[in-house]
């Protein structure tokens, strides 16, 4: 599975769409896109452009970097395992356990650029903590309980 940079565009009606990019071993760039979901069905591969440049173009259109993800050949998205994990600490068991199919969240930060970057770092650290906690409990990522928006 390849590691991709995932970006999200939030529409004024609350819906969102995702776009991901990766540089292939041969130097070509692959992009995937679709509505925010666990799969990005559309794909395009091209040459003659750098990943940095195409990412900047998307950000100029309002897309915001979400993080690194792994995407398989069918477009299925998983959190990247290359992200650093926090030190797991034991958590008391919670009952009852509610299996959730997906976990999506949105944080609307209207602060300055430096604060936005700091918040992004803190949120990625928090996500790492959630993953570590889930692994320490022996749960699959989809077994988190009590998360709702």
Short description:
By secondary structure, this protein is of the alpha+beta class.
Q: How does this model look, in words?
A:
- The chain is an alpha+beta fold and 149 residues long.
- The chain has a six-stranded antiparallel β-sheet with strand order 4-3-2-1-5-6, with helices on one face.
- The chain folds into two domains: 2-79; 85-149, no CATH class.
- The protein is built from two helices and six strands, in the order ββββαββα.
- It has helices at residues 51-60, 113-137; strands at residues 2-10, 16-23, 29-35, 42-46, 64-71, 77-79.
- Strand 5 and strand 6 form a beta hairpin.
Write the layout of secondary structure elements.
Blueprint: E1 2-10, E2 16-23, E3 29-35, E4 42-46, H1 51-60, E5 64-71, E6 77-79, H2 113-137
Antiparallel strand pairs: 1-2, 1-5, 2-3, 3-4, 5-6
- The gross shape turns out to be globular
What is the tally of beta strands? Answer: 6
The total number of structural domains is 2
| Elements, N to C (H/E) | EEEEHEEH
User: How many distinct helices?
Assistant: 2
Strand content: 25-35%
- The helicity comes to 10-25%
Instruction: Specify the biggest β-sheet.
Output: 6 strands, antiparallel
Low-confidence runs of at least 5 consecutive residues:
83-101, 142-149
SS content category:
alpha+beta
Enumerate the strands of the largest sheet in spatial order, edge to edge or round the barrel: 4-3-2-1-5-6
Mean pLDDT: 77
Q: Span between N and C termini?
A: 29 Å
Rg value: 17 Å
């Amino acid at each position: 599975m390849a590691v991709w940079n995932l970006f999200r565009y939030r529409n004024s009606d609350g819906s969102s769409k995702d776009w991901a990019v990766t540089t292939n071993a041969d130097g070509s760039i692959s992009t995937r896109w679709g509505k925010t979901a666990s799969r990005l069905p559309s794909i395009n591969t091209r040459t003659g452009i750098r990943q940095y440049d195409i990412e900047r173009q998307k950000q100029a259109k309002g897309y915001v970097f979400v993080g690194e993800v792994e995407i398989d050949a069918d477009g299925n998205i998983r959190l990247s395992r290359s992200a650093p994990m926090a030190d797991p600490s034991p958590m008391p068991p919670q009952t009852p356990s509610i299996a959730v199919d997906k976990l999506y969240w949105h944080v609307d930060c209207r602060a300055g650029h430096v604060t936005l970057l700091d918040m992004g770092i803190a949120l990625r650290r928090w996500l790492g903590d959630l993953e570590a906690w889930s692994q320490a409990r022996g749960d699959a990522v989809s077994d988190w309980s009590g998360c709702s928006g």
